[in-house]
Amino acid sequence: MTRLTPLAPADAPERSRQLLREIIERHGEAGAMTATMAHSPALLQGYLELSRAIKRVKLPRTLSEKISLAVQEWLGCALCLAAHTEAARDAGLSEADISLARQGTSTDAREAVLLTYAVQVLAEPSSITGEDIAGLRRHGWSDRTLADVVGLVSLNHLTGAFNLVAGLEPAPAS
């Protein structure tokens, strides 16, 4: 059940109105999450800027979707899980890959350690040690990748937490 009301551009604060109009011009609609974020111009603008920036990470799309699935499963955001499951399928991931990613793992040992790290960044970043980072490096992950994962996890945390607070859920299956 929706707890925060999505806003039409005409009902949004001025800066949000501008941002929503830009989104609608580019994509044809704003979507429930961004229309609801429009209550806070700062949040909406920050989300859009972070989302654009994270599109430039140097992770393969399939791995990025696996990370998003692991994070959203941990958070429990059904709307985000539905969106990332669809995106994962579009990226060519199998149902088995999707299921494993939602469990925070992979058949690929190298990916599995990165997925574990991503969930740890979300759930317990203070527990990450120098040895954890060294282990990730031994698996071939660069500092850039480790930093990119923090950004991707942060974006997923923002969207998942917002959707859960706002009460946004996927449309019922038809």
Task: Give a brief outline of the structure.
The protein has helices at 14-27, 32-37, 41-54, 61-75, 78-90, 95-102, 109-123, 130-138, 143-166. With 174 residues, the chain is mostly helical. Helix 3 runs antiparallel to helix 9 (143-166).
List segments where confidence is low: pLDDT < 50 over at least 5 consecutive residues. none
Please report the distance between the alpha carbons of the first and last residues. 18 Å
N to C succession of SSEs: HHHHHHHHH
Strand runs, count? 0
Beta percentage is: under 5%
Largest sheet: none
Radius of gyration using CA atoms only = 17 Å
SS class: mainly alpha
**What proportion of the residues is helical, as a percent range?**
55-70%
Structural features, described:
There is one protein chain. With 174 residues, the protein is mostly helical. Helix content is 68%, strand content 0%. It is built from nine helices and no strands. It has helices spanning 14-27, 32-37, 41-54, 61-75, 78-90, 95-102, 109-123, 130-138, 143-166. It starts with 13 loop residues before the first helix and ends in an 8-residue tail after the last helix.
Secondary structure: elements and pairs:
Elements: H1 14-27, H2 32-37, H3 41-54, H4 61-75, H5 78-90, H6 95-102, H7 109-123, H8 130-138, H9 143-166
Helix pairs in contact: 1-3, 3-9, 4-5, 4-6, 4-7, 4-9, 7-9
Defining traits:
174 residues, mainly alpha
